[in-house]
Specification:
CATH class of the largest domain: Alpha Beta
Low-confidence stretches: 1-21, 24-30
Largest sheet: 8 strands, mixed
CATH topology of the largest domain: D-Maltodextrin-Binding Protein, domain 2
Number of domains: 2
Radius of gyration: 22 Å
Strand order of the largest sheet: 2-3-4-1-5-13-6-14
Strand content: 15-25%
Shape: globular
Number of helices: 16
Mean pLDDT: 92
CATH superfamily of the largest domain: Periplasmic binding protein-like II
Order of helices and strands: HEHHEEEHEHEEHEHEEHEHEEHHHHEHHH
Length: about 375
């Protein structure tokens, strides 16, 4: 009798555990189509989205997903095995903290954006998760064409000797480029801050409020230089507005070599309620990433078409980046460096503050649907 009670109890526990595990809608085969909103910032770090939607038909045999264009670059329909699974609305949202804010406000269900703003949003309690790596590198330090420095060391010397602070622009408070640059300034012992009335500043950091305004601020002489992601530096070079001092990943103390820059995030509600559609999209994005790495011509063409940049800009810009959706040991290691730096710069003030990397991973990441998407493609 005791043995029988023990077995029944064990079965009940297993049933409860299996019930807690997220189940994809396709398991029932009767899920209603959903509307899923995907946000991107409108630069070439998010080329996987552009390539995936432009070349979805090339991936059908391996993804099983058919994509119908309803309104180019705005509205698509996903079907699988003859059944409509989702209407996909694609929305352009602002960079930096604006993408996580759009997630928090329910404007979008999935967002392409920087890893630092996503982690900062999780820290502040926003119910979102980082669901896939996407992109690394691609952040530059740009100065006016007539600026005296040609190298980072020359910039440091000028900053230390200047009678007034050098003005360096950035696009948003938790932009990846800003965090990397400030880490380098701190390493060099250069005093910096955003308050123009502060005493003793050698570098004044200026929020230009958007990546599209970086070159405007530079050409208008509002800043001496800026830190930002491509393609904006490549546009500056094309239009002779500025020149690149260095790739930010090369800055001391060397923390951000091959640094993750952008990722894909989603709301926890969407992960629970729209998992089939998200999994299908992730399959497409994985294949889009493969195309970027195997056919630069298609990557350049898609980026130009979606962003409106020139071919010359994208051929200069895209090679400065790396595109990968692999949760590799290197990705985890470099994300650990992000976490340590955000703590050190006092960006984390909430639920992630001073937590070990493993605990941050548990709270901030959810790769279940990415793993499912890759498994489904591998089975075909």
């Amino acid at each position: 009798m005791k043995r029988r009670i023990f077995v029944l109890t064990g079965l009940l526990v297993l049933a409860l555990l299996s019930g807690c595990k997220r189940q994809p809608e396709e398991a029932t085969g009767s899920a209603e189509p959903v509307t899923i909103k995907v946000g991107h910032v409108g630069h070439d770090h998010h080329t996987a989205l552009f390539v995936a939607m432009d070349h979805a038909a090339d991936y059908t045999s391996t993804t099983g997903v058919q994509v119908k264009v309803i309104e180019d670059q705005k509205l698509y329909e996903l079907t699988e095995k003859g059944r409509k699974i989702a209407t996909v609305e694609i929305v352009k949202v602002g960079g930096g903290s604006k993408m996580p804010t759009a997630l928090a406000q329910g404007v979008i269900d999935i967002g392409f954006g920087g890893v630092a703003p996503v982690l900062a949003a999780v820290d502040s309690g926003v119910p979102i998760r980082l669901i896939a790596p996407l992109h690394y590198k691609g952040d530059m330090f740009v100065v006016r064409p007539d600026f005296e420095a040609e190298t980072w060391d020359e910039f440091v010397a000028i900053a230390q000797a200047a009678s007034k602070p050098l003005r360096i622009g950035y696009k948003s408070p938790v932009a990846c480029a800003k965090v990397i640059f400030e880490e380098a300034l701190k390493h060099e012992g250069i005093t910096f801050g955003g308050d123009p009335s502060a005493e003793g500043l050698q570098v004044q950091m200026i929020n230009v409020k958007g990546g599209g305004k970086l070159n405007v601020a530079l050409s208008g002489n509002l800043v001496d230089g800026y830190v930002g992601n491509n393609p904006f530096p490549s546009i500056a070079m094309e239009k002779d507005l500025g020149r690149v001092i260095c790739d930010l990943e090369a800055l001391p103390p060397g923390t951000f070599r091959d640094h993750p820059c952008c990722c894909i995030a989603a709301t926890t509600a969407a992960l629970d309620e729209k998992s089939e559609a998200i999994t299908a999209l992730l399959r497409l994005f994985v294949h889009g990433t493969g195309t970027i790495n195997s056919d630069v011509d298609k990557a350049v063409a898609a980026a130009c078409r979606w962003i409106g940049t020139s071919e010359a800009v994208e051929r200069r810009s895209i090679p400065t980046s790396g595109y990968s959706m692999e949760v590799s040991p290197l990705w985890r290691q470099t994300m650990g460096q992000w976490i340590a730096t955000l703590n050190r710069l006092d960006v984390f003030r909430g639920r992630l503050k001073d937590l070990p990397v493993e605990d941050v991973s548990e709270l901030a990441y959810d790769f279940a649907l990415l793993n499912e998407a890759k498994g489904q493609s591998a089975e075909r």
